[in-house]
Amino acid sequence: MHNLLPGLRKFTHDVFPELKPEFESLSKGQTPHTLFITCSDSRVVPNLLTQTQPGEIFLVRNAGNIVPPFGASRGGEEAAIEFAIDGLKVTNIVICGHSHCGAMAAFLSPEKIQKMPSVRNWLEHAAATKRRLEAIKKGEIPTLLEVTEENVLVQADNLKTHPSVSAALREKRIRIYGWVYHFETGVVMIYDPLNHRYVCSSEVKEEASKDATRFCLA
Asked: In degrees rounded to 5, what are phi and psi of residue 177?
C-alpha cells in the first residue's frame, strides 16, 4: 500500500478537483466510442497511449489480448464485448498487442509456463496463432514480434464469431482495427489489410485517417 497511497492522495487533492466537472458529467452515464482490447501488461497504458479521457474507451484486458471464440470460455470477455456493442453502442473495436509480450513469448518458450496451468489453458485460445505461423514460416522459428502481430489478426477473427459483433458488422455499426504497440519506442503499428502489413501510425496520412474503412479488419 505504501506505493499506492501517495498517488491516491495526489489524485484526490490535486488531480480530481481539476477534472470534477468531467466526472460529474460521467456520473450520469458513459458513451465510449471505442472498445479497446489489450494485454494486462503493466507497461501498456491505453489512455496514455491514445491520449483519451475518462469515458472515451471501454477496456477489456487479459494476458495476451486474447478473445476466445464465442462459447469457448464463457468468461468476462464475452460479456464485456456484448455490453460494449449492444449496451454502450461503441463504433470502433481495437485489438492491441504489444512488444515484449510475455504471453506471446510462451509460444516460443513453453517451458516457462510449465508450472502455470491456468496460463497454459488460457493460451489455448490463441492456438490458431501458432498453427497459422507454422504454415507461413514452413519450419522456421517465428520471432516474438511475428507471433505478436499474427495473434492480433487471429483474435480479430475470433471476435467476429461473437453474435453481437457479427450483427454489428452486418449492419455496418462497428469497425475493427489491429494495432501493435512498441512501448520502448512509443510507436504504434496499425495493420493495413489492403497491403497485408503493419504500418507506423505516424506515417498514416491525414486523409487516410479520416477514411473509417481504410484500416478496417472488418
From this structure: -130, 150
Contacts of 217 (CB under 8 A, 6+ apart): 153, 156, 176, 177, 178, 191, 193
Instruction: Look at strands 187-192 and 92-98 and give their pairing.
Output: unpaired
Judged by DSSP in three states, 31 sits in: coil
14 is catalytic: no
Give the pLDDT confidence score for residue 218 in this predicted structure.
Answer: 76
Where does residue 36 rank: exposed (0-12), middle (13-18), buried (19+ CB within 10 A)? buried
Cell readout for 66 is 486474447
- 113-126 pLDDT tens trace: 999 999 999 999 98
Q: Does residue 216 carry a catalytic annotation? A: no
Say whether 39 is catalytic. Answer: yes
Active-site annotation holds for 197: no
